[in-house]
Known about the structure:
- By secondary structure, the protein is an alpha/beta fold.
- The protein contains nine helices and six strands.
- Strand 4 (163-167), helix 8 and strand 5 (182-186) form a beta-alpha-beta unit.
Amino acid sequence: MVREPVELVIFDCDGVLVDSERICVKVDAVIMADLGCAFTEAEIIERFVGSSTEVYTAAVEERLGRRLEKDWQQRYEHLYQAAFEAELTAVDGIAEALHRLTHATCVASNGDHAAIRRSLELADLAGHFEERVFSAADVPRGKPAPDLFLHAAHTMGVDPRHCVVVEDSAYGVQAARAAGMRAFGYCGGLTPAARLEGPATVVFDDMRELPRLLAAAAPPPT
Length: 222
């Protein structure tokens, strides 16, 4: 891929900005057991980290052998909220990286707007993004479809070729590639490096390295 100038850095939220994936996996396991379709934590990491609500629901329904009511997840929201209030923190090194970045930034997450905002506030990161927050609720399809990243780029007025995406899941990296954007795959969380590797992707494990990696991704001065 041609090294285009980097004008916009699009951050996923869960697992990239806030260290929520480990919390969510534990809560997911409790919920699925309650529904009667137990998944192991390893299965949840493999199949659902970074996925959309549609992917998650379809897999649960397949294992249950029946359809779930439309708003089935709402009755479990209090479990996530309580766990986040008690345990949620920023991803190690991300605050330092954000302070050092000189690029325009935004957030694009499969979560809904209220959940994204609450997570950023709990992790003391909301001030870095102000109103530049995009949700899968804004588009027809969440990740792994490219819709959300393309929507964020269009709203921010930046050509997709000049955007990079920071993701921690295979679904997110897939969405970035489909949008024609370069991906930076963070493997310091739950997803192993091998699941993030691929074309137009830089894999790294320390958020403090992100400013340097972004600088290296830009074309050399003419």
